[in-house]
Amino acid sequence: MKHDRTYTETAGLVWMALCCLVWALLGWPWPCQAEEPSQTFTLKSSIEYALKHNTQVLTSKEEVVTAEANKKKQFSEFLPKLSANYTYKRLDEEKKGSTGAVTSPENLYSFTATLDQPIFSGFSIWTEYQISALGLDVAKLLEQQARQDLVLKVKRAYFELLQMEKLEKVAQQAVTQLTAHAAVARNFYEVGMIPRNDLLKAEVELANAKQDLVVAKNNVQVAKSRFNTLLKRPIDAPVAIEDVMTYEPFTQAYQDCVETALKQRSEIKIADLEVETAEKNVKLTQKGYYPSIDLQGNYYKKGDNPGVDGGDGIADRDEWDVVATASWTFWEWGKTRYRVKEKLSRLAQARYNKTEIRDQIRQEVKEAYLRVKESEQNILTVQKAVEQARENFRISEERYKEQVATSTEVLDAQTLLTKTQTNHFNALSRFHISKAELDRAMGLKVTLIQP
Is residue 9 part of a domain? Predict the structure, then answer.
């Protein structure tokens, strides 16, 4: 019996090993499989990755393809058009003349080839082609604008993630320090050196710090998911980014920023093109004041059989003609005049819109520039305060251990240190994001934007 039991156990182990081997060969995921190490993104690689995968940028590229196709379509209007038709006609009986000769066969087949060439259309073909070319220019500028918008979003997500990671470290540091302080307070309480309420204060502050740490960790996860979503990565994909949360003085003059924006912003260039397009639409509408001239050439072939090669009753089996047609609708009760008036109003609106856009851009640059200078000043102010708060906490902790300071002083010093460090990292993040917003307000091309 013992031998049978040993054999059964051995067989079971072999069977389990075979199942595991099959599982591995088939590539099925193990329940506790560790995640692959995450890729470390730099700011530059993050921007490059987003530009390759973001659907808004890809959509803007397709808009350029659409505009290019439309321009080529409009160019085809200058060229002649060729068409052909083939018909069959059946009479109840063939027709004969007085001499008995067949004049119309019972079965009549005909083939016609036609060439149409517009000669003059009131300048409409040329104007529509110019409008399509302007549409292509607008599509390219909108693609550039989409790229600039995406770069700003990536920079904002990148520095917000860095900010959340820094604040998580601040929260973790607070928990560590308050844990140590609570341990000292308990030791003092157990030997009767402090009252119970001092111990309770330390433990309550530690509990609050632990709650803040949970919030900080969640904020990091939210920031990572936003970063992944923007880059079109799986939302739960691991993220590691390079720490570039440093400060370098901002020296660019405000007036230089404004001048750059007025030269570079795609919105102004688009507004210029919209004014030009409105002018072309006025000209296009005026085609109603002119006649149109078209040239048509036709080649005919007839027969009493499917080969259309003549027959009885067909005097000339093939022939051709050329027709020039001039047409002019000269009275429509003012329709063309009212249409022109409508387009002139659209032109005036486009010009007003261009002025409004220039004013808005100046305002955007002003606000972005002031945010950069404000966050820079905050950094300079808080940098020294961080060291002072850190030293203040160290002194308060040492004084408390010597029982020449109260627990409240230590807790206040810890709160001050946490707040100061938080302000410091918030100011750094705001500084970098504000600079990215200023770059976008100036309309810097993606190749000119320094990550």
Answer: no
Tell whether 107 and 235 lie within a shared domain.
no
Q: Tell me, what CATH number does 385's domain have? A: 1.20.1600.10
Q: What is the pTM of this model?
A: 0.80
273 is a domain residue: yes
392-448: per-residue pLDDT in tens?
A: 888 888 887 888 777 788 888 888 989 999 999 999 999 999 999 999 999 998 764
Check if the beta carbon of residue 61 is closer than 8 Å to that of residue 112: no
Q: Which residues contact 273 (CB under 8 A, 6 or more apart)?
A: 134, 137, 138, 141
CB atoms within 10 A of CB 303: 19
**Contact predicate 364/148, CB 8 Å:** no
Residues 252 and 342 in one domain: yes
pLDDT, residue 33, reads 36
Q: What is the pLDDT of residues 143-158, one digit of tens each?
A: 999 999 999 999 999 9
Nearest Cα to 226, choosing from 209, 211, 212, 239? 239
Q: Do residues 421 and 278 both lie within one domain?
A: yes
Do 256 and 278 share a domain, yes or no? yes
Asked if residue 308 and residue 356 are part of one domain, the reply reads no
12 inside domain: no
Digit-coded pLDDT (tens) for 236-285: 999 999 999 899 999 999 999 999 999 999 999 999 999 999 999 999 99
The identity of residue 218, as a single letter, is N
Q: How far apart are CA 411 and CA 405, in angstroms?
A: 11
6 CB contacts (<8 Å, ≥6 apart)?
A: none
- Residues 108 and 153 grouped into a single domain: no
Of the candidates 47, 112, 162, the one whose C-alpha atom is nearest the C-alpha of residue 318 is 112
Pairing status of strand 292-303 against strand 318-327: antiparallel
- Residue numbers of the domain that contains 236: 37-79+145-289+330-448
What length is written for the chain? 451
Average pLDDT for the chain: 86
